[in-house]
Design goal:
With 306 residues, the protein is mainly alpha-helical. It folds into 2 domains: 3-81; 100-298, Orthogonal Bundle (Urease accessory protein UreF), CATH 1.10.4190.10. It has 15 helices and no strands. The chain has helices at residues 3-20, 29-33, 37-63, 75-92, 108-114, 120-133, 135-152, 155-167, 172-192, 198-205, 211-221, 226-248, 253-262, 264-276, 287-295. The longest helix is centred in the first third of the chain and has 27 residues, at 37-63. The termini are far apart.
């Protein structure tokens, strides 16, 4: 075999072996010049795939981290921490987490009775308004503010935010809904998912802890980043509302999923607005939804508590 071809093959073997050992991520321009075009294409693809896999592995801690910080450079430990945080967040915001969310409709039951919500399209419009200009946005702001105060250790500010959130509801039933779920969320988290700093944050609130404050406190205490906590909370909120609508209208499972899919950009936009907002930006423009929450208290036939 001619010497140049033998040298080229030996070079390719060395590069592939180096990739297998996870030591090669780039190929210098000088090396690539002496390799034929077909070989360059194959090696470039392999190298790019190697880089993509590495980036995907490292993306997990960019979304979530726990309060157990892995050693620098230990990608396995970082990935495990991200997986643990994701596992906890999915558990806490799952419909199976026992906060009693299935028993509340946030006034949707009266809206169905009054004819404001009668099909998938009208449910989607109603929920989009609640997320963008109503309780969804306000709860998102409170969650973000609570998360930041716990992360920074400013428990005096946390107490003030928790007090404001508990007062920021338009009806007695809405107060029952958010405070009962918040109380249940904190109780279960302290019993099954306790961690350093959680008890201190709860005691600092010195009063009722409504649902978004509870989620903000627990996620921050566990070191879960604000962005995934916010998106997860608003997704769970929308899912619970859709579940109530599906039982009341009623809707099939496919239509329910279509509504949830259509609300994806609304949830993302609301989460971004809520994280960028301050307490001065709080406000609601969903008068009809607030009225529904009040009228539900005297509704003749009810399946839900709100």
């Amino acid at each position: 075999m001619p010497a140049p071809r033998m040298a080229m093959r030996m070079m390719i073997i060395r590069i592939i072996l180096a990739m297998t050992m996870h030591t090669v991520t780039t190929i210098t321009t000088t090396t690539m010049i002496i390799i034929p075009t077909m070989t360059i294409t194959a090696i470039t693809i392999i190298t790019t795939m190697n880089i993509v896999v590495t980036s995907t592995t490292m993306a997990i801690p960019m979304l979530m981290t726990t309060n157990e910080r892995p050693a620098a450079g230990d990608r396995g430990a970082i990935a495990d921490a991200g997986h643990a945080a994701l596992y906890r967040l999915l558990t806490w915001l799952s419909p199976s987490f026992p906060v009693g969310g299935f028993s509340y409709s946030s006034g949707i039951e009266w809206a169905v009775e009054a004819g404001d919500i009668k099909d998938a399209a009208s449910l989607q419009d109603w929920l989009a308004a609640m997320l963008t200009d109503g309780s969804g946005f306000c709860d998102g702001v409170f969650l973000a503010q609570a998360h930041r105060t716990v992360a920074s250790g400013d428990y005096g500010a946390l107490r003030d935010i928790a007090e404001l959130a508990a007062a920021f509801v338009p009806s007695r039933e809405r107060q029952l809904e958010t405070s009962a779920q918040g109380r249940a969320f904190i109780k279960i988290a302290r019993s099954a998912w306790n961690c350093d700093g959680l008890d201190q944050a709860v005691v600092a609130c010195d009063g009722a802890i409504v649902y978004p404050i509870a989620v903000g406190i627990v996620s921050a205490a566990h070191g879960i980043l604000l962005a995934p906590s916010q998106h997860g909370f608003l997704h769970a909120l929308a899912s619970n509302w859709i579940s109530a609508g599906a039982r009341l209208i009623p809707l099939g499972q496919t239509d329910s999923q279509r509504v949830l899919a259509a609300l994806e950009p609304v949830v993302a936009t609301t989460a971004a607005r809520a994280m960028a907002a301050t307490l001065d930006d709080l406000g609601s423009a969903t008068f009809r939804a607030d009225l529904a929450s009040m009228r539900h208290e005297t509704q003749y036939t009810r399946l839900f508590r709100s």
